[in-house]
Amino acid sequence: MEVDVGTGAEAEPTGGGATMGAMRVAVTGTGHVGLVTCVSLASMGHTVVGCDADQEKISLLRSGVSPFYEPGLDEGLREQIASGRLCFTSDREEAVRDAEIVFICVGTPARLNGEANLLAIERAARQFARHATGPALIVEKSTVPAGTAGRIQRVLQLERPDLAGQLEVVSNPEFLREGKALQDALHPDRILVGASSPRGFEAMRRLYAPLLTNGCRLIETDIPTPELANHACNASLALKISYVNGLARLCERAGGDVLTIAEIMGADPRIGRDFLDAGLGYGGYCFPKDLQAFERLSSRLGYEFGLLREVVKINEEAIDAAVEKLRDALWNLEDKRIALFGLAFKPGTDDTRFSPALALGERLLKEGARIIGYDPQAGANAKEELPGLEIGIGPYEAAAGCHGVVICTDWPEFRALDLHHLKRVLAFPLVVDGRNMFDPREVRAAGLAYYPTGRPPVEPDGLAG
Ligand code: UDX
Questions:
Q1: How far is the CA of 236 from the centre of ligand 1 (A)?
Q2: 99 and 214, same structural domain?
Q3: Which ligand 1 atom sits closest to the C-alpha of 240?
Q4: For position 286, which CATH number holds?
Q5: Which residues are tagged catalytic?
Q6: Structural domain range at position 373
Q7: By alpha-carbon position, which residue is closest to atom 20 of ligand 1?
Q8: pLDDT digits (tens, 9 = 90+) for 61-107
Q9: Nearest to 314, CA basis, from 340, 278, 343, 290
Q10: What is the model's pTM?
């Protein structure tokens, strides 16, 4: 994978305070964020050691294979390993020993009460402190609640009083979208750095010098601000989605068209068209978890952020709405067989964590329906998460003999489906479109009953009743 950011070694210092130069970096945690951080920093010219406790994962990574699907990642991984700038180890001491900067990219899963579980962060900080041999920065990359950097700093002080003032925490949150993560890492909209000393800011400017010279905006602040901003950004995107889904519910009752409303809203640059696609709602490993964690953090700090709770509620109602449409068309759901098209939480990934498709699948199983899914990438992960789900080898094979299809994920290839053929293989000609992918006129021409999201349904002649 060629990147157009240049390497630290060959670039010149800039007038904007960005000093070039390859740095020694360690990255703890090689999940979606960690691995993309490894590959992108190595392609900027830095020497990077990726570290993960999972030995199997490390062996896979050493052979140049990513444990998950992300466009361009396998190629980037192989290229950076071959360049000698990227390697992997399961030994944290080895990773951290000579690093100038250590990124923490470990998971922060939700606890039962919705708060982020920060145990892996604490452990990573403790081990970093134990193995540090001199001045170094520890950088929060994973999404963490405000106050986490303060906690990490305390661990560093307690573990290594001998390195007082030399080990420093920096906040540098990620804004990576799955499916576009490498592109986002190499061409970010902005780089956000929270630090408490000039040394911290200077080191981060050196690290990101190749991106800064390319004109990327750098925002430098105190430490709590980026911690809060990361949650704030994810929550405002989720808020837009829930807002448009709330409008979809209203359109379904009043007879309006939410797609046109989204266009009208989007024509106002103050609102913007992005993240106004109504559908089955948001999923994935960020929004659902971050929304809850943000709301819990806020509540713990004494501010009841009811708006965030409402965002979550409306997101859950999107699943209810799809179930209601199926019930409306099929009457009882027991004994019915439903095909789910798209199982990943969004297109371009095989990630099924908190996927709306699986939330719907689980609901339908509870209602007594049988479900079969098809996804271009995520079939195996979906089956593992929801064993009651059958997996079809193709869309028509999955739909064969079914009483309806629900479009759950907007994979572009679904737009090219032959709707006439789909009708022929279905036992009952019904499409519930949880992503508004089809032109209602084409669905009508194919003779399918069509329930889009927040748009008027299409009932082909002769099917009513
Ligand atoms: C998100 C943020 O975009 C990223 O900046 C952050 O760092 C991590 O979380 P990601 O989880 O990869 O990235 O997915 P994103 O593309 O934001 O989509 C999230 C969910 O919202 C998906 O389930 C998607 O289908 C849904 N979505 C998105 C909608 O339902 N409607 C929309 O208009 C947009």
A1: 11
A2: yes
A3: 33
A4: 1.10.1040.10
A5: 286
A6: 321-451
A7: 282
A8: 999 999 998 999 999 999 999 999 999 999 999 999 889 999 999 99
A9: 278
A10: 0.91
